[in-house]
Amino acid sequence: MKTIRLENIKKQYGVGQATVMAIQDINVEIQSGEFVAIMGESGSGKSTLLSLLGALNTPTSGRYWVDSLDVYALDQDRRADFRRENLGFVFQSFHLVPYLSVLENVMLPMTIKKIPRKKKQELARQALARIGLEQKGDRLPNQLSGGEQERVAIARAVVNDPPILLADEPTGNLDSRNSREVMELLQSLNGRGITVIMVTHSPEWSGYANRILWISDGFLSRIDRNN
Amino acid sequence: MTLKDIAFRNLRRRKGKALFVLLGLMIGITSIVAFTSLVETLTHDINSKMEKYGANILITPKTENLSLTYGGLSLGGLSFEMQEINQKDLEKIRTIKNAKNVAAIGPMVLGAIKIKNQKVLLAGMDFKVSHFLRPWWRIQGSKPDGEGLLVGAEAARVLGIGIRSRIEVNGSRLMVQGLLEPTGSQDDHMVFASLPMAQRVLGKEGRISMAEVAALCSGCPIEEMVTQISGVLPGANVMAIKQVVKSRMVALEHFQKLAYGLSAVVILVGGLVVLVTMMASVRERTSEIGIFRAIGFRKSHVFRIILLEAGIISALAGALGYIAGMGATKISLPLFTDSHQIALNFNPITAGGALGLAVFLGLLASLYPAFLAARLDPNESLRAL
């Protein structure tokens, strides 16, 4: 169980007169097991906020806590360990490694874990089975449809059983049928206790979330709750 | 799935770049192996000639126009009608300080004779010491006694004679008692007889054209012996075979230095090819590295993937470079020596060295690209997606 807390988080890009405040004084707490959607216009700072939550970006000021862990107090290597143990990423453009098979892509987060190869394969197959692609493990990503690739990306994100799943516009490149499948998959993962934080433009898919964080010009302008 | 699997898979996918790195290193290693093994083989060839060469001191008349070809070592040709050495003078060699090191003295008289209307070189020698002076000789039949002949393989073929053939030489009818098996030297073209008979046939009684001395050479002061013999034979030119070989060895050393210089340049260029190609590869893989970092790979893991890839290609380049280098040596060897039976042996030190050098160079040239890859900011890398 991981509680996420952002305290006075600011992110500024550039220097001098060319500075842009991408995120300004955001304070928010996300409870373990929540499904949170981050919404806002293009350039509002949604993706920056997600990258800060993903420990990929260093805030200009403020603190990011996961339970009692001050994430940005960690050095780069410990932050990588944190990502490996706690986070799963789903990207808009799938971002599967093109020269690895579907099964190998799903095994990727376990690469540096000291787990026997067979066990890794077994876990990856189980993850593929959960998304209904266990028969396509030997294929290369470019032999799958967009929807299938996104599902593989989700399988890769959750194969390590991370408590937090970060999704950056997971339906951005999918048609409505595939989008719905992906959203249902995220919902089912959330139902298993995984905290899901998703950036989306779509009011339809934000309906799957418990809460919606509205970002405007880098500020957290509004928080909506879905019933 | 391990880092090694990722490295292998990426190499398989980017075959063109992998091949480029492979060739860059392989050409360097090939040239180093070729030059090294060529020098090594030629040195070995000279050494083995020295070992086979029973006589290691040559005594020739002092003339202005004398050169010899002997024992596979090019000493030039010989003018036979030059002044000669008195045979009795050779006894003085037994009086030098290091006389105990003298194993055998082989006086030799040389002259042209006509057999079946063909000019042939007749050499008169002391067959009692021939096993010291020409240990490589293999004779069919027997060594000739006072009135017999020993005929070189090529001479026998050209003249159409065999064992027990009788030949008319300057009015004497002589029998061929032995045939010399091919030696690959000038001996194949000659006819040999006992010294007194050759002197008689050539009309050179008491005189010799040259002499060979076999000195017990293990630790023997060969240069000193040359000086001592020169002292007792002031009218003769005395030289150690070593001196002749030395000039060839010096030439070989110059060749070696030039070869290593060229190899260093080729290797440097190979290293640069690896560096540039690996840099390009890292740039091309920015987004992929971003994914690795996002899912929890440490900098050191990315660093290791790049070096693993470089190490795998480099090892392959080392192995292929060694094979290609040995092949190049085999092909080019006839251009550098006239010996026909030089063995090009597998040398584990050269092979290991080639492999080690390739891997070392490949890794060294990939250190900077690997460092850049590891240092990539994951957030920036993912933006490149």
Short synopsis of the structure:
The complex is a heterodimer of chains A (227) and B (385). Chain A is of the alpha/beta class and 227 residues long. Chain A is built from seven helices and ten strands.
Supply database-style keywords.
heterodimer; A: 227 residues; alpha/beta; Rossmann fold; six-stranded mixed β-sheet; four-stranded antiparallel β-sheet; 7 helices; 32% helix; B: 385 residues; alpha+beta; 2 domains; ten-stranded mixed β-sheet; two-stranded antiparallel sheet; 11 helices; 14 strands; 53% helix; elongated
Describe this structure in words.
The complex is a heterodimer of chains A (227) and B (385). By secondary structure, chain A is of the alpha/beta class. Chain A has one domain: Rossmann fold. Chain A contains seven helices and ten strands. Chain A has a six-stranded mixed beta sheet, with helices on both faces. A four-stranded antiparallel beta sheet of chain A has the order 2-1-4-5, covered by helices on one side. In chain A, β4 and β5 form a beta hairpin. In chain A, α4 crosses α5 and α5 packs parallel to α6. Chain A is globular, with a radius of gyration of 17 Å. The two termini of chain A are 23 Å apart. With 385 residues, chain B is an alpha+beta fold. Chain B has two domains: 183 residues, no CATH class; 172 residues, no CATH class. Chain B is 53% helix and 19% strand. Chain B is built from eleven helices and 14 strands. In chain B, strands 1, 5, 6, 7, 8, 9, 10, 11, 13 and 14 form a ten-stranded mixed beta sheet that branches. In chain B, β5 and β6 form a beta hairpin. Chain B is elongated. The relative contact order of chain B is 0.19. About 3% of the residues of chain B have low confidence. Chains A and B meet through α2 of A and α1, α8, α9 and α11 of B.
